[in-house]
Amino acid sequence: MARIQTLAGEWFEPELPNRLLKIAGDIRDAGGRAFLVGGWVRDALLGKACRDYDIEVYDMAQDALVPILSKYGRTNLVGKAFGVIHLAMKGLSLDFSFPRTESKVGYGHRGFVVHTDEKLSFREAALRRDFTINAMGMELPELTLCDPYDGIGDLKTHTLRHVGPAFAEDSLRILRGVQFASRFECTLAPETVELCRTLSLDDLSVERLFEEFKKWLLKPGRPSLGLRAFLDIRLNEYFPEIRPFEGSWEALGGILDKMAELRDSNEGGLAPLTDAQKMEFAFAALLAGSAGTSLKFLERITNEVHLLKVVPPLLETFCTLDPAIVHDAPALRRLAVKLGGLKLLCLLVKCAPRGFYACESTGGTDFATTQNSNFATAQNSDFATLQNTDFAAALWDSAAKYGLLESAPQPFLTGKMLLDLGLKPGKQLGEIIKASFELQLDGKITSAEEAIAWARGVI
Fold first, then answer.
1. pLDDT, tens digit, for every residue of 52-78?
2. All domains of the chain in start order, with CATH
3. Nearest to 177 by CA among 162, 190, 163
4. Per-residue buried b or exposed e for 213-222, using 16+ beta carbons within 10 Å of the residue's own CB
5. How many CB atoms lie within 10 A of CB 158?
C-alpha cells in the first residue's frame, strides 16, 4: 500500500479500497491515467482519513472506460453532460469523471456549459477548481502528487487562494471561502479577497446559501477565522443583519469558537445535543449580537422552521437575562417553559465574554450601569454571592437542580383528571389547568396528587 508524507512530516497510509487500486491498474494498462482529486488529496496531506473518493480519468474515452468498470460492478452514466460514471459494487460506490472545462452562459449555478476532453492536461482541467488546496491530484496507484498551482504551499501557510478567473463564474465560492477558512484554519489571499468583493450572491438560492453557513458553523474548525474571511470580503454589507457583539467583531469571533468547543462536548454528563439543537446553538452564536435582526437574517437563508422558532426568543432571553434568576426557581421554570428547556441558553451564556453580565467581575467596568437591566430592583437575589463567581456555572447548576436543562415543566393536572373529578368539558377545564400550572411553576404544587387535591377545592 502506498504511503503519503503529510505536511507535518509524518508518514500516513490512507485507506484505499483494493478494488480501486485494481481498477486504476486496469486503466493504466489500457493507456489511461486515474487520479484521486479534490478534498481527498487535501485531507490526506493533512493526515486525515477520507473515504470520499473522486476519481478523474485522463487519456481515455468514456466508451473505453465503461467496459473496464463493468468488470467490477454495475455502471451508470449519471451525468452525461458532466461525464460522470457511477460504479456500484458490493459495499462500495465510486464516481469516475473526465477532465472538463466549464463556461458560464446563464444565470445561477445551472447556467454552465460543460465540455469533457480526455486529452486535457491535469493543469488545464484544474483551472476550473475553486482554491489551490482543492486543485491537487494524486495519480493511482502510486499516489504521485500532481500540484500545478502550489496547493501544498498554500496548505502549509494556511492560505486560501483562488486558482484562476473561472473562480468568479460561481458566486457560491465566496461562501465556500468562508467555511474553508474556518474548517482548515486559513486566511484568504489578498487577491482572492479583492476578487470576492466584486462578486454578488444574488443568484444563489436559499438552499445553497444555507448549506454553506451550516458548513461554516457546524463542521470542525475555528469559526472565528470564517468570520474574519466573512468580514474581509465585506459580506457584513450583504448581510447587515449579522452584527458585532457589543460593538466588537473580535468578541463575536470568541463566541463562535467557544460555541464550536461546546457544541460537540458532553457538557455536564448530559445527553449530547441533537443535530437540530447543534444548528440552533450555532446560529444563535453567530447572531449573538443581532437579537433584533436575527429573524430577518434567518428568513433570508433558510426555511428551517425550528430555527425560526427557537433562535430569536433564545437570543432575546440571552441579551436581557437577569443574573438574579439563578436564585429564583419560579422565574427559571417559566423561562424553561418559554424556551422548551434551558440547555441552549446555558451553553450560550457560557460563550459570552466575561463581564457581559453585571454579576461578573470586569476589572472596573460597571456593566450594571450600561446594560438594560432590572438588576437594582431584582427580587429574591443576593448579588454579593455572585460578584466573583462564574454566572454561567451558577445558571447551569440552578437549571440542573430544578431539572430544567433538557426539558420544560409539564402540567401535573390534566383534562382527564378533571373529567374524572366530575367536571364537564368546557372552557373551565383550561382555566383550572392554567391556574394549577401557575401554582406548580411557583413551587406551591409539587405533584399530581397535590394538583388533584387543589382542583377538588376549587371545583
1. 899 999 999 999 999 999 999 999 988
2. 4-157 (3.30.460.10), 171-320 (no CATH), 329-409 (no CATH), 415-458 (no CATH)
3. 162
4. bbbbbbeebb
5. 13
Contacts of 438 (CB under 8 A, 6+ apart): none
Residues 273 and 348: beta-carbon distance below 8 Å: no
CA–CA separation, 213 and 199 (whole Å)? 18
Nearest to 154 by CA among 138, 121, 177: 177
Length of the chain measured in residues: 459
C-alpha distance across the termini of the chain, in Å: 80
State the CB neighbour count (10 A cutoff) for residue 129.
Answer: 22
Q: Please, are residues 113 and 103 in contact by the beta-carbon 8 Å criterion? A: yes
Cell of 315: 437570543
Write out the three cell numbers for 162.
483562488
Cell of residue 226, nine digits? 470564517
Grid cell locating 56? 478523474
pLDDT tens per residue across span 5-37 = 999 999 988 989 999 999 999 999 999 999 999
